[in-house]
Every structure is written in C-alpha cells, then in structure tokens.
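User: Predict the complex with flavin-adenine dinucleotide.
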Amino acid sequence: MSILVIGEHDNAALRPSTLNVVTAAKALGSDIDVLIAGSDCRGAADEAATIAGITRVLKADDAALLDGLAENMAPLVKSLAGNYSHVLAPATTYGKNLLPRAAAILDVQQISDISGIESEDTFVRPIYAGNAMATVRSNDALKLITVRTTSFEASEFGGGAPVEDISGGINAQLSTFAGEELTRSERPELTTADIIVSGGRGMQSSENFSMLETLADKLGAAVGASRAAVDAGYVPNDYQVGQTGKVVAPNVYIAVGISGAIQHLAGMKDSKIIVAINKDEEAPIFQVADYGWVADLFEAIPQLEATLGSNAS
Amino acid sequence: MKVLVPIKRVIDANIKVRVKADNSGVELNNVKMAMNPFCEIAVEEAIRMREAGTADEVIVVAVGPSQSQETLRTGLAMGADRAILIETDPIPEPLAIAKLLKAVAEKEDPGIIILGKQAIDGDNNQTGQMLAGLLNWSIGSFVSKLSVEGPTVKVTREVDGGLENIELVAPAVITVDLRLNEPRYASLPNIMKAKKKPLDTHTPEELGIDVSPRLEVLRVLEPPGRAAGIRVNSADELVEKLRNEAKVI
Ligand SMILES: Cc1cc2nc3c(=O)[nH]c(=O)nc-3n(C[C@H](O)[C@H](O)[C@H](O)COP(=O)(O)OP(=O)(O)OC[C@H]3O[C@@H](n4cnc5c(N)ncnc54)[C@H](O)[C@@H]3O)c2cc1C
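Assistant: Here is the predicted structure with flavin-adenine dinucleotide placed in the model:
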C-alpha cells in the first residue's frame, strides 16, 4: 500500500484536517506521502514534514495552485495517482470540492466521508444524515477517499520527512479566485475545539447570540449554530453544524435553544458529552443529551455564566 | 441560454429512516419520496434565471427508476420547460450519473448546469464536481450566490472558513447550497399544466454508458445509539456534573 494524502493548508501553514487524514492513511499502510500543492507554500510543506510517521512531502509550488482551485489541482492529483493505491483528502469543503473532480478524470468511484476502515478496500461511512452506517467495498484498483476528520485522531508532530519538489499544476484557465470573507475569531476552531457552545433559533437575534459568545469565552469554547440560526442571519454560515454543515465531535457540546432535528444531530451526535438547554421538555435534543436542563435560555445562560465566573477552575 | 438541472428522487427529508432487518439497505417501500431539497433550490434558481431573462429554457433531468417521473413533474410544475428521464433501476453511483449527465449535456449544449450540492440519501457530495471534471468545465460548488454576467459566472461559495468568491468561465457547473434561495411551491394550475409538458425517456444503453457499480454495499447498520442521560435543574448542578462527573470542563 502506498498512500497519497492531499494536504489542506493556506500556503503558510497546514490546516489541522491533514493530521486526521494522515491517521486514516496509517490504518491502510506505512508508506505515506503528503502532497502540499500551492504557491509559496514552503511554510505548509515544512510543517507537513514534521508530521510523525510519513515518508515524504511532495511540494508542488506554482502560481496556478495558489488558491487550490479544483480545475487546476485535479490534473496534478491525476498525474500523481498512478504511484499510489489510495489517495485521501479531508471531507472538508476543500476536499469535497477537489477530490470528486480528480476521481472522475481518473474514472474512479470515490468513497465519501469515511468514518471507519475495515481493510484496504472496505470502508464504513454514514448515509442518510448518519441514520445508517454503510460498509462498502470498492472494486476500483485505485481508491479515492474523503475522510471524516472527527472519526480519526490527529497525528502527532515530531517527524522529519524530506520535502521533495515536484512540478506544479496547469492553469486550466476556467476559474479565478476573486476574494473571500473569512470569519475571523480568536476562539478555537469548531472542528477541533474541545468545547462547543451552539445556539439555535431560540436565540432570537444576533445580539442575543453574544450571550453565547461570552459563555464560550469563559469556557475557552468555540461557537456553533443550527441551520435555523444561520438562515435567520444571527451568525455566519461557517458556524453551521449538521448534515450539510460541519461535523464536530468535541468533549462537550452545549446546545442552547436547538430542537435537535436529525440534520443537526448528524453533525454533533458523536460528541463525548452533550448538554441541552431548551424550554421545551419534549424537544428531541433531550433524547441524545447526557445532561438536559429544561429552562428558558435567557435565564439559564446568565446563571451558567455566573456559576462559572464565581468558581473558575 | 439553456439551463440543465439534474434532480434526484429521495426519501422525504422529514421521514425517519429505518434500516432493513436484513441489513441490506434502508427501507424504501411505502416510504414518502420527494425531490432532494438541494435539487429544489437548483430548480428554483434556474427558473429565476429564465424569469430574469438570463436563460431561455430550463430542462430538468433525472436518473433513476420510472417513479422519478413524479420528481420531474414536480420540477415542471415549479416552472421547468421540459424533462428528460434516464431510466435505470437502481439509481447508479455518482460517477455513472455524471457520465449519463455528460452525455445529455453534449446533446443539449446548456450554458450552465445547476445541481444540488448533495443528495440527502447517500450524502456523497460528488455528482456536480465529477460532471464538471468529465466535461472539463469550471466548477462552482456549495454556492450561496450566483450571477451570470456575459461569459462569466460569478459565485459566492460557502466554505469552512466563511465565504469565497470565484469567477467562472462559462459553460459552468454549479452545485447549490441551502441559502441560495427559498424554493417556490407549485400552484395547482401549474401542476395541471406540468402534466402536458414534454418528458422524454432514454436509457443508459441508448447513451452508450456503462452504469455497473464499482462499490459493493456489504451491509447497512443502525448507527450506535445514544441513550438520554439525566436532567439537571440549575446552573450549579450542571457545572458540578460537568466538572466532577464528566470531568470535561
Ligand atoms: C436538506 C436539509 C439539510 C439541513 N441541514 C442542516 C444542518 O446542517 N444543520 C442544522 O442545524 N439543520 C439543518 N437542517 C434544518 C433542520 O431540519 C432544522 O430545521 C434546524 O436544525 C432547526 O434549527 P433549530 O433547532 O435552531 O430551530 P427550531 O427547530 O425552531 O428549534 C428551536 C428550539 O429552541 C427552543 N427555544 C425557543 N426559545 C427558547 C428559550 N427562550 N429558551 C430555551 N429554548 C428555547 C425551542 O423549544 C425549540 O426546541 C437541514 C434541513 C434540510 C431539509
């Protein structure tokens, strides 16, 4: 088995999703290369080289790869794939955008969002918003796979793999990057946070959402949201947790004013501890909560803050 | 410009899915089916483009069993002009669907193809990206804003870090996210009218596409369950449990 991991990065630094994908790769074999394709991406490549247990880093440094556009990246992945038995990418918006295009031009049926590995050709993946788990065997000689990052631990740093330069991508001239509006936050990132405080339609406004932010800061937590809260404009889209948003699995997920629709549960029910605060004792979220508190959130949240503030750990 | 909108028939999003007792899949018999919610958004966007004058024909395409005609009729009732069914049972894998859609695109020559970003049954999130790859067209995935300006398609994409703007060279494939629009309901008169709109049926053989599966589903199981825990009645109690029982804060 030789495995190519498509590293996710912003040229300067590695994104943590890469570390989870490397762990999945280790379940398949020990010959693991990490591709860092970008422009001026030495920072990310050097960081990737320190992931423990990988063979080498392949660095493709080319202006056409600056923004990770799938049209320019997919031919590069195709040109490398012949050397590998498996090509893995994170099931993040980056990997989901890129890998199916590479799979199509390689004539491979991709396996999406795997949460388990049974053997070199057999994988477990959630379907129907996680209401069923399918075990699938691939009959393609080459396997292209996106990996659910929360299902695999992050690999440690501490290695020293060589970085090899490879020739870069082509500019397909089909698309151009025209700017981004990234949500800036000092808080931990949702997908890697230990604690998440998440709000739903019950928050009623973006002003009220700031209550959750204060609480999150007391706990060192990230802030998430249901689709209803995002649709209502209380918070930006990248806060959304669920079937069609982010999948998270923190130590504690505190759901505030969230009813617990299956599409929301799909994104958080692998959390270690789930806390639900909801004024409706029939809300389905209580069926999955380890600690359920039937309360009006506008009373409960200030009380919680006061309690945490008065005997800080 | 023609707009092609591939749509899928899936279990209704409000239905609780049940795994079959023999673990071969999920129960689809006597279950309410509907158009995949993301596909409704794609159809809506295409119709709005025609209403705004950027498009002159909206064609809905479904790959699936004959019952997919109902889904196509729903698309026609929303306002699509005509429909194409590629009849296959079962519904093939995303790669095969993308190949079938490529064959349709080559015949119809649309300026833009709009699809849902994922279907809520397989949750694969592949078909649009694959189709764009096979056609060697530009791709705008997970789109929450779309405008066609001459030969350029401007999109805003929902990505993990926030929003990203991309300019695509047409023809383009677009996969839509939830917040692009709010799909309309078909009115009764439009449902009646839709019955008379053209619906052509083809087969994969006619299109010369091999749809045999590459993946074998060995089993489908219930996910590990989560039992409901305990109720707490105050902030003090909750914090005490989180600190001393769960030891997570
Ligand atoms: C195709 C598709 C994909 C979807 N993807 C996602 C997804 O990725 N993520 C997602 O979250 N949803 C998703 N949804 C939407 C999902 O079905 C639900 O509509 C959504 O999760 C509901 O959000 P909510 O719980 O915030 O709102 P609601 O269901 O309206 O619940 C609000 C809750 O707040 C409680 N509440 C109100 N006021 C108070 C108060 N003062 N104090 C305490 N509690 C209060 C109420 O009792 C209620 O339980 C998707 C739906 C579809 C069809």
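Residues 2-217 of chain B form a domain with the Rossmann fold fold (CATH 3.40.50.620).
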